[in-house]
Amino acid sequence: MSRYDVIVIGGGPAGLAAAASARGHGAKDVLVIERAERLGGILNQCIHNGFGLITYGEELTGPEYAHRAELAAREAGVETLLDTMVLSVAKDRTVTCVGPEGLLALSAGAVVLAMGCRERPAGALAIPGFRPAGVYTAGCAQRLVNMDGLLPGREVVILGSGDIGLIMARRMTLEGAHVACVAELMPYSGGLKRNIVQCLDDFDIPLLLSHTVTRIEGRRRVEAVWLSEVGTGGRPVPGTEVRYPCDTLLLSVGLLPENELSREAGVRLSAVTRGPEVSQALETSIPGVFACGNVLHVHDLVDYVTQEAEVAGAAAADFAMAGGQRRGGHIVPVMPAGSVRYVVPQRLDLDALPEKVTFRFRVGAPIDSATLAVEASERTLLRRRRPIMVPGQMEQVTIRREDLLTVAGGITIRAEEEGR
C-alpha cells in the first residue's frame, strides 16, 4: 500500500488548485486521481471565454484556465494518476482505485473530495412521450460540438435556462442550427445575467419563463415538443400548449454534486446543496476528509472554485502534517435565514479560525432592494444593501476572525427585501 500525505480525488480546477495548495503548505507527497485521460475536468469542453477574471485578471477560455491550473500543480510537484476510477474512500482515509496499473489501495494523511457535479438526466423529468433520439443534456451536446466536432441537430428547443443551456443556445446558433426558444419552468432564469444578454438577447433567441415541455413527439427521432405555461406549483395550465417542430431537445435542468463516493464513505450531506456539510476549513464530518468545488455546492464562477480549493488544500496539508491530530474545537452552527437558501460552511470551529472566513450562499428566489445581514445572537456583524439578489448568482461575504470569536451561539446569514 502506497502512502501519500494528501490524495485529491478529481483532476478538474478544484482538484488541481487543492493539490497545488497542499504542496505549497508543506505536504510532501500529493496525488491527484482523475478518471478521465487528461486533467482539466469540464473546462476542457468550455471553449467560450469569461474564465479567470478574478484569478488571473484576464479573460480566458476554459481550456486555457485548465492548462494554467495543470501547470501550477505540476510545477508544485503534484503526482497524477489518470484514467483511474476511485471505487471507495474509507474512514481511515484508504483510497481504493482501479486503472491501468490495476487495483490499488492507497493510504492518505488527508483526502480532498473534488469530483465535481453531474447533470440531471432526462429520466428525472418524467416528460410524456416516447424516448426518441435527439434528446441530450446540454453538457453532452457541448462535448459533441466542442470536442468531437459533431452537431447534435439543426432545429433546437432548450429546456432550462441554467448557464450551460444559455451558452449552448449561442453555440448551436453559431454552428448553424436554429434555436427556437429557451423554456424555463421558473418565473426567473437560473443563469447569470451576462449569459442571458450575450447568449440569448444578442441572438434574438426567446426566453419563455414559466414554461415547460409537456410532450415529446417522435418515435425514432424527435419531431416536435409541446410547451405549456405553468401556474402555481409548477403545474401546466390547460389550453396553453404550443407545438414547436424540432429535431433536438437540449436539457439544462440542474446540476447535482457528484457525491456517491462521499455517501458510501459516511460523509454527512446537506439536504439542500446535496454536498458535504463542512467547517470553515472545508472539513467534512469525517476527520481528515475535505471537500471543495462543485462536489461541495454548485458554483457559477470557476474563480471561486479555485479560491475554495486553495483553502481545502491548505487545511488538508495541515491535518496530514500534524499526523491526523486536531484539537476538540468549540463548534457553532452557521444558519441561513430569510431568503437565503443555504450557506457554506455550515459550521465554525471557534478554536481554529483563520484571519478571515468567507461564507458563500444563494437565495431561493429573486429579491430586489435586498438587505444582507450577518447576525450573531443580539449583534449584527455585517449589514449591506444589494440592489438585487438572484438564485443564479452565488453571493459571498467575508468576516474577520476577531468578529467571529465571540459568536458562541452560532451565526445567521439573512437576506430580505427592504421594509420586511
Descriptive account of the structure:
The chain has 8 helices and 25 strands. The strands form 6 sheets. Strands 1, 2, 3, 4, 5, 6 and 17 form a 7-stranded mixed sheet that branches. Strands 8-15-9-10-11 form a 5-stranded parallel sheet. The protein is globular and about 65 Å long. The protein has 3 domains: 1-118 and 255-326, FAD/NAD(P)-binding domain, CATH 3.50.50; 121-253, FAD/NAD(P)-binding domain, CATH 3.50.50.60; 329-420, Immunoglobulin-like (Sandwich), CATH 2.60.40. It starts with a strand and ends with a strand. The chain has 420 residues and is α/β, with parallel strands linked by helices. Helix 1 packs parallel to helix 7 (302-321), helix 3 packs parallel to helix 4 (163-174) and helix 4 packs parallel to helix 5 (193-200).
Number of domains: 3
Tell the overall outline: globular
* Ends distance: 59 Å
CATH architecture field of the largest domain: 3-Layer(bba) Sandwich
CATH class of the largest domain reads Alpha Beta
The CATH homologous superfamily name of the largest domain equals: FAD/NAD(P)-binding domain
Give the amount of beta strand, in percent. Answer: 25-35%
The number of distinct β-strands equals 25
Quick one: biggest sheet? 7 strands, mixed
Residue-averaged pLDDT: 94
Q: Which fold name is given in CATH as the topology of the largest domain? A: FAD/NAD(P)-binding domain
Q: Please identify the structural class as seen in this structure.
A: alpha/beta
Cα-atom radius of gyration = 22 Å
Helix content: 10-25%
Runs with pLDDT <50, length 5+? none
Number of helices: 8
